Amino acid sequence: MLEYIKGKIAELSPTQTIIETQQIGFAINISLNTYSAIEGKDDVHLYIYESIREDAFSLYGFATKEERNLFLLLISVSGVGASSARMILSAYTVQELEAIISTENVKQLKGVKGIGSKTAERIIVDLKDKVNKTSSNGIESFNENKEEALAALVVLGYNQSAAVKVVDAIVKENPSISVEKLIKEALNRLR
């Protein structure tokens, strides 16, 4: 029924925001990624998912359609509710989560509070084909991260072949690692 809500931020916390529009305040649950995207802004535009149950009516807001689409995919998995999906999207960006699912990294996914091995495996099995169809950005962005990290290490004077081995090992352990963390970890291992 609701596609988006556009208005002024009346209140903002890492898990919820109140958006005022036409003198009505909407309490909207958000992920940390959405919080980061709207923090410091006066006016916002959030894509909405309405959760309607017998005992509750809740709104979930997302800074991008991609985040909302991934949220909808997550809650389609048996055993994953709106709160768990929001927790997962707070732990990883859309691109990171797509890469985790595409590379079948159960270990990384079960690192999210409340997500056990069986749920992580179910998410990967159920969503792997769906995520691959919607976007291959995740893996491409991590390949770019890898290339950037290698270039930085070579500029810092490290042997390229040694840097490649270390960076490959780090990316294999943690495919969703950011460029900054990848470089820091590689520097620690190359010492």
Helix content: 40-55%
Biggest pleated-sheet summary:
5 strands, mixed, barrel
Low-confidence blocks of residues: 133-141
Shape: globular
User: What's the CATH topology name of the largest domain?
Assistant: DNA polymerase, domain 1
Question: How many discrete structural domains?
Answer: 3
User: Which band does the percent of strand residues land in?
Assistant: 15-25%
Report on the structure:
The chain is α+β, with helices and mostly antiparallel strands and 191 residues long. It has 3 domains: 4-62, OB fold (Dihydrolipoamide Acetyltransferase, E2P) (Beta Barrel), CATH 2.40.50.140; 65-135, DNA polymerase, domain 1 (Orthogonal Bundle); 138-190, Helicase, Ruva Protein, domain 3 (Orthogonal Bundle), CATH 1.10.8.10. It has helices at residues 32-38, 65-75, 82-91, 94-102, 106-109, 117-134, 137-155, 160-173, 179-190; strands at 4-12, 16-21, 24-30, 43-52, 57-62. β4 and β5 (57-62) form a beta hairpin.
Write the SSE topology.
Elements: E1 4-12, E2 16-21, E3 24-30, H1 32-38, E4 43-52, E5 57-62, H2 65-75, H3 82-91, H4 94-102, H5 106-109, H6 117-134, H7 137-155, H8 160-173, H9 179-190
Parallel strand pairs: 3-5
Antiparallel strand pairs: 1-2, 1-4, 2-3, 4-5
Label this structure with key terms.
single chain, 191 residues, alpha+beta, OB fold (Dihydrolipoamide Acetyltransferase, E2P), DNA polymerase, domain 1, Helicase, Ruva Protein, domain 3, 3 domains, 9 helices
